[in-house]
Design goal:
Blueprint lengths: L3 E4 L5 H11 L3 H9 L5 H8 L15 H13 L3 E6 L3 H15 L5 E4 L12 H9 L2 E7 L6 H9 L3 E5 L13 E3 L15 H16 L9 H10 L6 H16 L3 H9 L8 H18 L3 H7 L4 H34 L2 H5 L3 E4 L8 H12 L3 E7 L2 E7 L6 H7 L6 E4 L3 E6 L4 H15 L8 E4 L1 E2 L7 H8 L13 E15 L3 E8 L5 E6 L6 H5 L4 E12 L2 E13 L1
Parallel strand pairs: 1-12, 2-3, 2-4, 4-5, 5-6, 7-8, 13-14, 16-18
Antiparallel strand pairs: 8-9, 9-11, 10-11, 14-15, 14-17, 15-16, 17-18
C-alpha cells in the first residue's frame, strides 16, 4: 500500500538559533524540540529533565476533595471498601495499585473485576449485588463508571457509595456518584486531560496521601502506572510523560514481583521502553481477561513473593499462547470474509460479525484488519444473547463520533477517538453495518484513507553522531504524541549485506553518496522493495534511529518506515 509522506513544519532559522546556543545542541535537534512545542529554554529544560515535582496538584481535579474525604470516612468508620475495575491492562493495573496501597494499612478491603463474558464492560448489576451481599458500603470504580448512572443509582438504593475514576468521554449525564473523577468532564478544570485509568487512580492516592499519609509511598506504584500508560495508548505528553519516565525506571530497576516474573517469562533481558511494554507485558496481562478471568492478572500484580509471582506468571503465559491462537485463526477468517466478498473489499469501512468468534480477541483482530486494509473497522461477536464488538480507527478519523451517529442501533457504546466498544441487539446488526458504512463514506477523506509516514526532518547520514543519538535518547519515553523522531535521507544505496528474513522483512547496510558513513538497517514488512534494492537503485528512506542490544553489544541501527525510489 502506497504511503503518504507528511513533513512537519520547520521553524525559521532565527526562531531556533538562540535556543540552540542556550541548550548547546545543533539546529536540527532544536528543530525537533520546536516541532514538539518546546520553544523556550525553560520548557525545553523541563522536557529533558522530567521531575515528579512537576506533577499537577491532584486537588485541581473536580470532586477530588469529596473523593478523599469519603475514603477517609470509610477508613475511620471501618467500612468495607471494594476496589472495582475493568478487565483490561489499564483496569487491572489500576485495581492492583489502589488495592495494594490500601491493604498496606487497612484490612477490610477487597477487589472485584467483572467477568468479560458474563457481565461485560462497566459497573455491572452482578457486581453491585455481590458488594451488597458481602457488606461493602464504598466502591472505588477504576477505568469505568462514567456511563454507569443507572448502576450508581442502584448502588445508592442499596446503601453503597461509589467513587468513579474514569478517563473515558462522559455521555450526556454525569453519574450521581459521591465523586466523579474524570478530567474529560466539561466542568473539570484539571490541566491535563489524557491520564490513563490507572493514572487517575494514582491521582486519587496522591491526593489521599498528601492529606493523610506520606506521598512518597504512592511513588512505589509507578511501575504499574507506566504499564497502563503504555498499554492503553494514551499520549506520552505532560503528566503522562513524567509518570511513564519514572515508572519505566522502576520497571527496569526494581519492579514489583508480578512484573518481574512477567519480564522473565517473556524473556526480556534488555531495558524496557514503552514499545516493549506494549508488545510483551501488555498482551500477557490482557490475556488473563481475554481467555479466562482477569482476576488472575490482579493476583499476579499484587503478589508479594518471587515464587508466587513466577507460578502465576507461567499460568498467564499459557493463557497468552491460547489468546495468540484465537487471534491468528479469527484474523485469518476475517480477512477471508473480506477477500471473498467484492462489496466488502470496496467498502470504506469494515464491520464483520460471526457469533462464534472469541470475544476476548476481537479488539486485536480489528487492529490487524486496520493494519491490512487501513480503514475504520468493527469486529462483532455474540455474547449473552447480545452482539458485542470492538472498533479501531485510522489516523484523524473520529470513531467515537461515527458511533454516535449510529446510536439509534446501539444499546451502549464507549471509548475514544481511535478505539471503542459497543453492544447491540442481534437483529440490528445489518442496519448498523449499513449505517456505519454510510457515516464513514460521507466523512472520510482521501487523505485519511492513505497510510501516513510523518517525517520530522531531512538529514544526511553523517549527521547521525554519538551526541545526536544521545540527545534523541533523552527525548524518551516515546509514544503517542511524542513519537520517536522520523528522518528522511536521500540519494541512498545498499552498500552490502542485503537479505530477507521470514519472507517479509529486509536487512542491509545503507550508504549515501558523498560520505563514507554506513549504517545497519532493518525494514520490517518491507520485503516488497527487495528486488529494486538488489538492483542497486537509489532511493529515499524514512527511518528512525535505534540502539540494538545483542549479546551485551550495543549498536546503532536505522529502522525503515518507508522507502521511495528515485
Amino acid at each position: 500500500m502506497e504511503k503518504r509522506w507528511l513533513y512537519s513544519p520547520e521553524p525559521r532559522p532565527e526562531e531556533i538559533s538562540e535556543l540552540s546556543q542556550k541548550l548547546n545542541i545543533n539546529s536540527q535537534l532544536t528543530t525537533l524540540l520546536w516541532q514538539r512545542g518546546f520553544r523556550d529554554f525553560e520548557t525545553a529544560k523541563d522536557f529533558f529533565r522530567p521531575s515528579l515535582m512537576h506533577l499537577h496538584d491532584p486537588f485541581l481535579m473536580k470532586d477530588m476533595q469529596q473523593a478523599v474525604l469519603r475514603l477517609k470516612k470509610a477508613i475511620d468508620s471501618h467500612e468495607k471498601i471494594l476496589v472495582y475495575g475493568d478487565y483490561d491492562v489499564d483496569g487491572t493495573t489500576a485495581v492492583s495499585m489502589v488495592y495494594s496501597y490500601l491493604k498496606k494499612f487497612y484490612e477490610p478491603c477487597h477487589f472485584y473485576i467483572p467477568d468479560r463474558y458474563a457481565e461485560g464492560y462497566g459497573v455491572s448489576e452482578a457486581g453491585i449485588r455481590w458488594a451488597e451481599e458481602n457488606g461493602y458500603s464504598l466502591i472505588i470504580a477504576l477505568d469505568l463508571g462514567i456511563k454507569s448512572d443507572d448502576m450508581v443509582t442502584l448502588a445508592s438504593h442499596k446503601g453503597i457509595d461509589i467513587i468513579i475514576c474514569d478517563h473515558h468521554l462522559p455521555g450526556g449525564k454525569i453519574p450521581n456518584a459521591i465523586a466523579v473523577l474524570d478530567p474529560k468532564r466539561e466542568d473539570c478544570l484539571y490541566p491535563f486531560k489524557e491520564l490513563s485509568g490507572c493514572g487517575l487512580g494514582f491521582k486519587l492516592l496522591q491526593a489521599f496521601a498528601q492529606k493523610f499519609r506520606d506521598e512518597q509511598e504512592v511513588y512505589d506504584y509507578l511501575d504499574l502506572v507506566a504499564v497502563s500508560i503504555a498499554s492503553d495508548i494514551v499520549p506520552i505528553t505532560g503528566e503522562n510523560r513524567i509518570l511513564a519516565y519514572f515508572g519505566l525506571q522502576k520497571l527496569n530497576q526494581q519492579p514489583r514481583p508480578g512484573l518481574a516474573a512477567l519480564k522473565e517469562t517473556a524473556a526480556i533481558k534488555n531495558e524496557m521502553d514503552i514499545s516493549t511494554v506494549v508488545f510483551t507485558l501488555g498482551p500477557r496481562i490482557n490475556a488473563a481477561g481475554r481467555v479466562a478471568h482477569a482476576h488472575a492478572a490482579v493476583e499476579l500484580l499484587i503478589s508479594k513473593t518471587e515464587n508466587e509471582a513466577k507460578a502465576l506468571a507461567e499460568k498467564i503465559n499459557i493463557k497468552n499462547d491460547l489468546r495468540r491462537e484465537y487471534d491468528l485463526s479469527i484474523t485469518e477468517e476475517a480477512i477471508g470474509m473480506i477477500e471473498n466478498d467484492e462489496t466488502l473489499r470496496q467498502a470504506k469501512s469494515t464491520v464483520l460479525f460471526k457469533n462464534t468468534w472469541h470475544k476476548g480477541v476481537i479488539g486485536i483482530v480489528a487492529a490487524r484488519c486496520v493494519e491490512k486494509y487501513y480503514r475504520p473497522t468493527i469486529i462483532l461477536t455474540e455474547s449473552n444473547e447480545k452482539v458485542t464488538g470492538s472498533a479501531r480507527s485510522i489516523k484523524d478519523f473520529d470513531l467515537y463520533k461515527a458511533l454516535e451517529s449510529c446510536s439509534e442501533f446501539l444499546e451502549k457504546y464507549g471509548g475514544h477517538k481511535y478505539a471503542a466498544g459497543l453492544t447491540l441487539e442481534k437483529q440490528n446488526v445489518p442496519a448498523f453495518q449499513k449505517k456505519f458504512e454510510e457515516v464513514v463514506s460521507s466523512s472520510i477523506t482521501e487523505e485519511m484513507k492513505t497510510p501516513l509516514v510523518e517525517i520530522d526532518l531531512v538529514i544526511s547520514l553523517k549527521s547521525i553522531t554519538p551526541k545526536f543519538i544521545n540527545i534523541i535518547k533523552q527525548m524518551a519515553p516515546f509514544g503517542p504524541e511524542n513519537q520517536r523522531p522520523v528522518f528522511e535521507a536521500r540519494n541512498l544505496q545498499v552498500v552490502n549485506s542485503l537479505s530477507t528474513f521470514k519472507d517479509k522483512h529486509v536487512r542491509f547496510l545503507v550508504g549515501q553518496a558523498g560520505n563514507e558513513v554506513v549504517f545497519q538497517t532493518i525494514g520490517f514488512d518491507q520485503a516488497q522493495h527487495y528486488q529494486r534494492l538488489a538492483e542497486g537503485d537509489t532511493f529515499r528512506m524514512a527511518f528512525s534511529i535505534e540502539e540494538n542490544q545483542y549479546n551485551g553489544i550495543v549498536s546503532v541501527q536505522l529502522r525503515v518506515r518507508d522507502i521511495k525510489f528515485d
